[in-house]
Amino acid sequence: MSELVALIFDVDGTLADTERDGHRVAFNQAFVAAGLDWEWAVPLYGELLKVTGGKERIRYYLDYYNTAFPRPADLDGFIKQLHADKTRYYTEMLALGMIPLRRGVKRLLDEARKEGVRLAIATTTTPENIVALLQNTKPPIPESWFEVIAAGEIVPAKKPAPDIYLYTLQQLGLRPEQCLAIEDSENGLLSACRAGLPTVVTVNDYTRAQDFTEAALVIDDMGEPGRPFSVLNGADVHGHTYLNLALLRRIRSGAMACFVR
Ligand code: XBP
Ligand code: MG
């Protein structure tokens, strides 16, 4: 059995709770600025999260939730501009330090670095968003901590396709059995699993009720010493109360080849 060589992190919902009070709000700001009367309320946004990628999400909204909207001749250009504005609003929000890392993330990153476990990111979001998130957490996380940052349109198909994880593995020069993925959503889990990666899921309010059949472990968050996680499904945690390398190594060594429904 291979040792655990690298951890591959999703960003949105995993490193930080970015969707409800971050991306969603920025989309709405962009809609107002463009003179549109669209409003993505919290429950609607939960439905739109079925589709990954901001541009794809806007198109999905038009296709299924706002079919009466008179489409401009250059719909692609319209969506592209709207999304660029949204990215600006989102990164401005991050620059104000409005979105912290989730519980346990900094501790786990520190531990991995101390023990020489390599780090990478595999995400659907726009690259600027990752830089803005890492730079504006307290304390800031240097981008250089992550050997590979695979994001957005670097691959043709976004999650739940495996492309972004396959690309990350290729860049790391590692096999899936040498790594673990950490995700928050069903789309992310499917993407990682289809690339053969055993996956730990830390849920959030938008993803709690999703299907995580393939996950090696499902927890409510990473926990901290004195702030235990709740195990929602999956592996025996061997008395651990928070996600650390000892637990991840046990999960890694016990994980079966990932089977995808
Ligand atoms: C994240 C996403 C992203 C963000 C918005 O999915 O789906 O689309 O919601 O980012 P995951 P952009 O966490 O599974 O990678 O607007 O920059 O696309
Ligand atoms: Mg995510």
Task: Characterize the structure shown.
The protein is α/β, with parallel strands linked by helices. It has nine helices and seven strands; from the N terminus they run βαααααβαβαβαβββα. It has helices spanning 19-33, 42-48, 54-64, 75-95, 105-114, 127-135, 163-172, 186-194, 245-254, and strands at 6-9, 118-122, 148-150, 179-183, 199-202, 217-219, 231-234. A seven-stranded mixed β-sheet has the order 3-2-1-4-5-6-7. Helix 1 crosses helix 4 (75-95). The site of magnesium ion has 7 residues, from loops.
SSE string, helix = H, strand = E?
EHHHHHEHEHEHEEEH
Q: What's the gyration radius in Å?
A: 18 Å
Percent in strands: 5-15%
Give the strand line-up of the largest sheet.
Answer: 3-2-1-4-5-6-7
Number of helices: 9
User: Cofactors and ligands present?
Assistant: xylulose-1,5-bisphosphate, magnesium ion
Largest sheet: 7 strands, mixed
Beginning-to-end CA distance, first to last residue = 24 Å
Globular, elongated, flat, extended or rod-shaped: what is the shape? globular
Give a count of the beta strands, DSSP E runs of length 2 or more: 7
Quickly give the structural class.
alpha/beta
Average pLDDT confidence is 95
Report helical residue fraction.
25-40%
